[in-house]
Each structure stands twice: as C-alpha cells, then as structure tokens.
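Morning!

This is the sequence you dropped in the shared folder:
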Amino acid sequence: MFFGKRSSPCGDCVDGYCTMNCGPAIQAPKLPEGFKVICSVCGDALDAKTQFSAGQLKKKHPRCRACAPNKFSNQKGTGRASNKESRRAQHLQTLQAAGLISNLREQVDYELLPAQLDEAGKVIERACSYRADFTYNDDRGILHVEDAKGMRTDVYRVKKKLMLWFHKIRIEEV
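The structure's back. Tokens below.
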C-alpha cells in the first residue's frame, strides 16, 4: 500500500490482497528522495513515500490519505467501516448525551431469512441477515434504523426491501 512495499494499481491492497479486485499486487515504483505531490483536494504538498498510495499517484488528481474518501476508519479504536460512519456515530452520541435520542446501538443484526436445514438437521443454506449501522429511539419513542451509505449495492437494495417486508422497518440512509 505504501511506497517501497508491495502495492496495487488501485492502492487499496494490503499484504498482496486487493479489496477492489484490481489484479495482483505489483511492486511500487521507487521515487527520488524528497519527491513531493500536491493533493488535489486540500492543496498540501506531501511526501509521496509516506502519505500517498501507488494508485493515487497514477491518477490525474491525486489525494492525500486525509482527503481520500471511503477509507477504513479506526478513530479511537472503534474500527468503523468509514469516516462517514464514524462522524455519524459521534453525532448520534452527542444527541444521546443531550437527551434527544435514547437506546443508541451500533451494528445491530436483523435476520431476514432463517437458515434452511435438511431432514438430518444439516444446514443447506445459511441464514440471511442485515446489519444496521445504528438503531435508536427518538424523543417520541419511534425506532430509527440507519445505514451510513457510500454506495448502494444490489445486495443492499434487496436487503432493504426484505427489512421493510418482514420487519416493517424502513432503513434510513445517511
């Protein structure tokens, strides 16, 4: 992922495994000492050996790690899926501290379809479930189920419809 280590064309590979299916990991190019890159978002001049991935350098408008969207967020050891989800969690925690919402929970599982078993009790098909990013009750006691969405995948669209059909819960996208 960083220069001098193995990286991929997309810049999202870790230890030779790509999360974006861009292909096998390749050796990143060696750059001259003191080589600087300008972030297209914030305009900072950054040292490419420490603050840019190989994939960002190949792009027309590179971004520094601070400005690159949809990266795994580990703020305060929470390990949330994205920075957007982390910001939303902080906002909801503030609302709960102010008393505007209650019963805030994160990563709540809802079973959509139970596991399918044969006559002997062996699992034929595993259960299908949806994991909500946040659930909470507002000041009127109404349950809210939220998902911090970056991209709406086909699997998510189907699970959203199943949540409405089986549990009568409408997922709110933030």
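Headline: Residues 99 and 139 are 8 Å apart (CA to CA).

More detail when I'm at my desk.
O.
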